[in-house]
């Protein structure tokens, strides 16, 4: 009996799942992304995607990887050999999906002309990728693999995530400057799980140059009177919220009080009685849209951390907390945020993944909305979800 169908082929996140099917000789059909069967089974065309016997459906890279390996051998050492190593494997998989792939995706989209050229965004993303490589090299200086001293799915997946970098930016010079990283990468891609793809892969010699916007044609000069000098244009704000000017009380005062005072006894009374001005600020409830896709609570918290990192350009104009409620394989993310002005979007849209969240404006005149903010910032009471009480498992503060 067929074990199912896997959708995805040369997309970065699909390289390893396909390799597992080939290496394990699983009776799983391989189909390209957006095949008719995938469109019929899933509301989106994200890959990898899997349809198994009796209508079993699965998406998201980590889930698909664990399913395929377990299908071959539920006790496979690729998943780790004890509780600690299994947790470390999950750590690297979560880091790769939530942290590493964010700047890598920015580089891909710009260099492949999928989005308009933005030099600052490209330089920032490339620098972040190099920082992630440096983070890996700290481990690889003294170890052969990322977890323990044997190959795991952590090595396989993280290595596959760099596929586009070696096709676009990691040229000969870069590779020569990173011998530790390259020793590990070359070891991993020669394994039976990835060799099918990388044996014929062509590494870029020189980094691909971005396609710059074409310059407008300049008209020939004509003998005309010189126009009057144009009035000086006002300097554009570096951030759209900068145009609102400085608030009555600097936001740093609130952040300082929150860090140094007891939340219930000091920071919250200061916020409501002294700091908050609804003409200068607005309050927002923020919910993650895809709670049904979350698995382990620490991975959900890593997701929040990645989101907060990408909000760094707006931290001068906002403050808040997001918590992870519930337990492993049954958790969600929600938070309360203070934002300069009356619209959430200028503050949040600096993060590419802000559309994965929904935003609901809160009314400080309503006791239930004030209580929600208090609970989100104090973390000392359960979250009520659809009438059910859920304990807070973890969380992060944006400040």
From TrEMBL:
Gene3D superfamilies to which the protein is assigned, alphabetical: 1.20.1050.10, Glutaredoxin, Translation elongation factor EF1B, gamma chain, conserved domain
GO annotations of cellular component type: cytoplasm; nucleus
Keyword Protein biosynthesis: yes
InterPro entries named among the record's database cross-references: EF-GSTs, EF1B_G_C, EF1B_G_C_sf, Glutathione-S-Trfase_C-like, Glutathione-S-Trfase_C_sf, Glutathione_S-Trfase, Glutathione_S-Trfase_N, GST_C
UniProt-annotated stretches for the region Disordered: 212-242
SUPFAM superfamilies noted in UniProt: eEF1-gamma domain (SSF89942), GST C-terminal domain-like (SSF47616), Thioredoxin-like (SSF52833)
Listed pathway(s): Protein biosynthesis; polypeptide chain elongation
GO molecular function, one term: guanyl-nucleotide exchange factor activity
Family: Belongs to the GST superfamily.
UniProt-recorded name of the protein: Elongation factor 1-gamma 1
